[in-house]
Amino acid sequence: MRARVFALVLAGSLLSLTACGSGSSSNPPTHSSTPTVGASPLSDDAKVKVVAWFSDKRHHEGMQALDHDLSAYKRMTVLDPVRTDNFHNIRDTCGDLDHDVPILKAFGPIPDPQTQALWTSTLTNIQQGVTDCLASLTDSTGSRTDASNTNTTQLAKAKAEITKGDTDYGALADRVGDVLGVRTPSPGADPTSS
Questions:
Q1: What pLDDT, in 10s, does the model give residues 81-120?
Q2: I want to staple 86 with a disulfide (CB 3.0 to 4.6 A). Which of 79, 82, 122, 163 is the partner?
Q3: In terms of Cα–Cα distance, which of 78, 33, 60, 70 is closest to 165?
Q4: What does the domain layout of the chain look like in residue ranges?
């Protein structure tokens, strides 16, 4: 998923930054996606800092967990939440996101303000969606409901918020590619094919 996109972006950017550092006069890689509107160029030093942030093992593992949680959530919300087996799976995936998002929020800031703004928006929207998701699956006393008592209106609101966070996360991947001047695969593309 996106963790693979980030890995490709980072690998490509490390190569291009190495070329810059060795005095190479090669042209920078072309980027086929639409550039982020208002994206400000970064110095080579700033690019190295962005690469370092995304390369940090804790950050990389955190984004892998977020990718996994979002993928599981999307698979579950396509299904009917009123069915008992889907209800439990949705509750579990919202619980996983509820566990992981506060950990991700504790990361230091991404050393590019525009990318950090996307990261903050991603986590804020997902956290709000998770709060609504879990609330839709509990009754007024805070006890877990069964599938037939699910607040489907609030669950739909949660889905919209988490989807917005996921969209922001995709924009973050595009922004990193733009900042680093590397081509990122389109969503759903197989990163192993050439």
A1: 666 667 778 888 999 999 999 999 999 999 999 899 999 9
A2: 79
A3: 70
A4: 2-180
